[in-house]
Specification:
This protein has 419 residues and is of the alpha/beta class. It folds into three domains: 194 residues, 3-Layer(bba) Sandwich (FAD/NAD(P)-binding domain); 133 residues, FAD/NAD(P)-binding domain, CATH 3.50.50; 91 residues, Immunoglobulin-like (Sandwich). The chain has seven helices and 27 strands. The chain starts with a strand and ends with a strand.
């Protein structure tokens, strides 16, 4: 049994930022567990730029962004294990992990931060008729093959889903000499950032087919073609709208799912809307002393927001470790709720006496809206309004409220809605 004050599960952008922040706040015994062969997580395969505009006020590639935190982690002397898979986590913060050097290891911590990130939906989750030949990849897998392993996955490509990784891979495949015929999206709006639609599709004349999906796959050993059909408001294919594409590769960018198998093992309550843990204003889960941050909580669009959220988790985890007598804060609890037009709100729980000067709320809208107000209400009464010219499901909304508006009023619910 090895004991640490803090164990961070995941060495991607969330885990790195959380561990560094905890170290800066007085926690000396920290261990970061990473299942991959290097730190940095998904950033290592994101060789395009656009990272760091909020945190560093400059444009970096994914590896450059990761390198800054990896260097700081090493400079601070924070211990980390690579090629280490965590296979069990209990509510008393006992961890079982396995790697080639040490075999099975049992670890114990005063606090744990979950930073496992998310995974892509695979082909098996989609009801597409046809065979399952070679040539069907998730967009992230194709990205890793090309950017890190040096393998070209195909020459004639169709992409299903307009998530950011799919949009970025449309450009990447084109730059590598492939022909990207189209990006099909079943929803009437894109699930990716507007800047990625412009820079990755429009700039390369790649068509985005909204309200379209793949309805048939052809090929036995290798993919030979797909049929893309328009869908109605119930997402059912419309006969007579079929488009046949000869292709050898189909990339799937159909959504990301937070990695929460370990969270469930520890008895942490999972939010059905986000598929991530329910967290309070300190990024603490429903199990005291276990915190969560980044894409394991909810899928982010910008890594800068992951970093900020993870720094908060690291800060409060450090406070938890140092102030054991104050672990249970007796204070009124305010629940957050997404109402008209809002899918979910993070954090789901706010403890009034534990609020900092500003209360940060993250959310996603359900549809595309123009010239609207995002209205924060306390027990149904308007508290603050934020005017927005354009909002879309692919772009996370971030609202900041002065905690003085909340304290001392014994509110039970804080809701956000579109007006």
């Amino acid at each position: 049994m090895k004991k640490y004050e803090l164990i961070v599960i995941g060495g991607g952008p969330a885990g790195l930022a959380a561990a560094i922040e905890a170290k800066k706040n007085g926690i000396s015994s920290i261990l970061v567990l990473e299942r991959d062969r290097e730190l940095g997580g998904i950033l290592q395969q994101c060789i395009h730029n656009g990272f760091g505009l909020h945190i560093f006020k400059e444009e970096l590639t994914g590896p450059e962004y990761a390198e800054r935190f990896i260097n700081e982690l090493q400079d601070l002397g924070i211990e980390y294990w690579l090629d280490t898979m965590v296979i069990d986590l209990t509510a008393d913060k006992t961890i079982k992990a396995i790697n080639r050097k040490m075999g099975m290891v049992k670890l114990e911590a005063k606090a744990v931060i979950l930073a496992m990130g998310c995974r892509e939906r695979a082909c098996g989750a989609l009801a597409i008729p046809g065979t399952r030949p070679a040539g069907i990849f998730s967009a992230g897998t194709a990205q890793r093959f090309i950017n890190m392993e040096g393998y070209m996955v195909g020459k004639n490509v169709v992409i299903l889903g307009s998530g950011d990784i799919g949009l970025i891979m449309a450009r990447r495949m084109t730059l590598e000499g492939a022909k990207v015929h189209a990006v099909a999206e079943i929803m009437p709006f894109s699930s990716g950032l507007t800047r990625n639609i412009v820079q990755c599709l429009n700039d390369f004349d790649i068509p985005l087919l909204l309200s379209h999906t793949v309805t048939k796959i052809f090929g036995q050993e290798r993919l030979e073609g797909v049929i893309v059909s328009e869908v109605d408001e119930n997402r059912q294919p419309i006969p007579g709208t079929e488009i046949h594409y000869d292709c050898d590769t189909l990339l799937l960018s159909v959504g990301l799912i937070p990695e929460n198998e370990l969270s469930s093992k520890a008895g942490i309550k999972i939010d059905k809307l986000t598929s991530g843990p329910i967290v309070n204003e300190a990024m603490e889960t429903t199990v005291p002393g276990i915190f969560a941050c980044g894409n394991v909580v909810h899928v982010h669009d910008l890594v800068d927001f992951v970093t900020r959220e993870s720094q908060k988790a690291g800060y409060f985890a450090a406070n938890y470790i140092k102030n054991e007598k104050q672990k249970e804060i007796e204070t009124p609890v305010i629940r957050t709720k997404g109402r008209h037009g809002i899918n979910y709100v993070i954090s789901q729980v706010l403890r009034e006496k534990n609020l900092q000067s500003d209360v940060e709320l993250f959310m996603r809208v359900k549809n595309v809206y123009r010239d609207i107000n995002l209205v924060v209400k306390a027990d149904g009464k308007p508290l603050k309004s934020f005017k927005k010219r354009y909002v879309a499901p692919g772009e996370m909304q971030h609202l900041t409220i002065d905690s003085a508006l909340i304290r001392g009023n014994n509110f039970h619910e804080l809701s956000v809605e579109v007006e």
